[in-house]
Amino acid sequence: MNRLLIVSNRLPISISRKNGDLRLQRSVGGLATGVGSFYKSYESLWVGWPGMNVQRKQEEEKDRIVDMLKKEQCHPVFLSPYDIKHYYDGFCNNTLWPLLHYFNLFADYDPKTWQVYQRVNERFCDAVMEVARPDDVIWVHDYHLMLLPQMLRERLPDAEIGYFHHIPFPSFEVFRNLPWGKEILSGLLGADLIGFHTYGYVRHFLSSVRRLLGYEHTFGEVRTGTRMVRTDLFPMGIDYHRFADSAGSTPVQKEITRIRHKYGKRKIILSFDRLDYTKGIPLRLEAFDALLTKKPEYQGKVSLVLVAVPSRTSVSSYQMLKKRIDELVGRINGQYGTTDWIPVRYFYNFLPFETLVAFYSAADVALVTPLRDGMNLMAKEYVATRTDGTGVLILSEMAGAAEELAEAVIVNPNDQDAVIEAIEAALAMPEKEQAERNRAMQKRLMRYDIEHWVGDFLNRLSDARAVRVERSEQIVTPAIREELVTDYAAGKDRLLLLDYDGTLVPFAAKPEKAVPGDATREVLEALSRTPGNEVVVISGRDRSTLDAWFGAMDLGIIAEHGVWIKERSGEWRMPEALSDEWKGEIYPLLELYTDRTPGAFIEEKDYSLVWHYRRTEPLLGAQRAKDLKDDLLHLTSNLNVGVMEGNKVIEIKNNVVNKGRAALNWVSRHAWDFILAIGDDRTDEDLFEAMPPEAYSIKVGLSPSRARFNLVAQRDVLPLLRRCIERDKDGAAGKKEKPGREKSLIESAAPG
Length: 752
Ligand SMILES: O=P(O)(O)OC[C@H]1O[C@H](O[C@H]2O[C@H](CO)[C@@H](O)[C@H](O)[C@H]2O)[C@H](O)[C@@H](O)[C@@H]1O
Ligand SMILES: O=c1ccn([C@@H]2O[C@H](COP(=O)(O)OP(=O)(O)O)[C@@H](O)[C@H]2O)c(=O)[nH]1
Prior knowledge:
Distance between the termini: 24 Å
Radius of gyration: 32 Å
GO molecular function, one term: alpha,alpha-trehalose-phosphate synthase (UDP-forming) activity
Catalytic activity: D-glucose 6-phosphate + UDP-alpha-D-glucose = alpha,alpha-trehalose 6-phosphate + UDP + H(+)
EC number: 2.4.1.15
Number of strands: 29
Pfam family, one: Glyco_transf_20
Keywords: Glycosyltransferase, Transferase
Oligomer: single chain
Bound molecules: the ligand O=P(O)(O)OC[C@H]1O[C@H](O[C@H]2O[C@H](CO)[C@@H](O)[C@H](O)[C@H]2O)[C@H](O)[C@@H](O)[C@@H]1O, uridine-5'-diphosphate
Shape: elongated
Strand order of the largest sheet: 5-4-1-6-7-8-11-10-9
């Protein structure tokens, strides 16, 4: 495998200053411990922040840090106190973190922190560019760097780029609060593969992409118009054996004995997290308090060991939370504590690995009740350490981990009675049942461990990239473009079949707004005036609209997908005899669907009916379109009409009519020495199919097509046509192009 370049906000190793000296220590948090547990077994380099402020002037210190981290396969991105305040404390932890965890009332929308977030993402991009090798696999992690995949894509168009999102992705109704949602989503879509912990997060992400950017998806693949991006779920695993094996090690056993001795016969309930409001610590304490009040028989019999690891201490919501927890612990201990029993044992610090495992092993119950949690590795770690099978995990249904740990006692953390019941059930659970539940979870955790997780993600990433490369072979590259332009210039009899909506002009929310602008008109005028050219505009639109737009030009027109055709300086005619009697039977059904689908409307043409749903809520529109199609198939089975799906439209028209048949009126008339057919939607597939093999048939957009080539996006169509015009003017020999024009055309065509 090629070298793996990991990029995350925090490096797995943090640097701090103590008595003027630099010290290395392990970083806190699931990302650092999870990803940190495997990266050294790969040929890899990890780019990120070493967790310490370094002032601009401290160049010498920076060099030392670079050297120290090099030995750890890490490369630092230095952040100033200003960056940390506005990017890390600000946009990351005061905007994205609360919003994406459904704490939207905590989220602050400050344009200044957004600006610094963008700048710091650029800084990370520069840092990657400093160290990246051509074949590196780049794996970006988490919400701090959501703009980075696209930034990297712009600088490294062919690179294999993955992104993993470690925290929840909320529903669109929550995500839409973010004023910069579109930019954030576009930033992520620079990746080839975007991974999440759960299917729910994937669905929410896809729905936001559809709603905010208008990009559709099938089987988790997003079509951006320029690229395909895969999304999938990869529930992060742990280094299972490290936890299971350590539980039996001598130092851990010693620590367990010390802890057990301290608590005697009392049952230990363990509450262990970073001090974060998403973890639900106050509610958990309140539930414990209520248990002691409602069931006094537990007083003196159980202790809650509360370990809260300091985190993001300069963010005010975290400071307030710390105060609240201190108060609650004081209140509970003051109310129930006795000379020989402290109900809540509170530790506010980071625990080294051995102590952590000892606490997991000594606890009878682990009470893990976050209000929202991307995954929660500590729940998995607790289960892994229980090698003798004992111990009960109480787990919040709001943690990503709950999807895999179904044998835990699952609770809603907001339901105090349920939490109390769960604690009681856990304390009373027979060992046999504990073991049955734990063994089932252990089996799963052992199989899908961290190594498996990494392998799974990286395999899918290389797969996604391979598919992108395969599909891009169809793309009109600068070389293919040159060939086309040269053939055009060399041709004497040229037929140009040009679809209108989505090809000559972009889509608009209302069809009547998609009028041909000056640029489109100029290109069509120039092409149709060129001797030897036969230009035909092909559209599903009605005759009168097309006449109003193009009637004065010297070109042919196909209207209503081929119901009507008009030769240059000829009259409109119907190439086939058609009936419109069926309309009366179909119209009421379309009306019914229109009434039930806000934003939908019906368009009536001479020999076809169209149901438009571009302006509807996308999911509703898509669902209704599917249902309508089914209903239409029944209703039209005895009529000589077909149902056709276009771009956000369902069109019902006479069976014999299609764009390909209509185009044959021109194709078969002459021995053309150059044919170009461009279109963007399914109705154009008939056109492509009717073309002779040597014709340049081009599908606009990247979905599979019968066309020979794909053009990345609609914005590339006019430059391509302009290029033909210019080359023709300069003569078939192909004189040198003006450098400025050449550059812009090639750039606009470049994939990615
Ligand atoms: O780096 P910090 O600001 O100190 O925060 C620590 C980490 O917290 C978050 O962890 C998440 O990742 C875990 C592993 O995927 C997951 O189990 C947990 O539910 C998440 O909250 C954050 O996503 C990391 O970036 C932070 O480093
Ligand atoms: O004192 C501590 C507390 C936590 N951790 C590690 O920090 C990670 C916490 O990850 P989790 O997914 O549970 O939550 P996060 O803090 O990332 O939100 C786990 O791997 C723990 O083993 C640790 O090493 N020492």
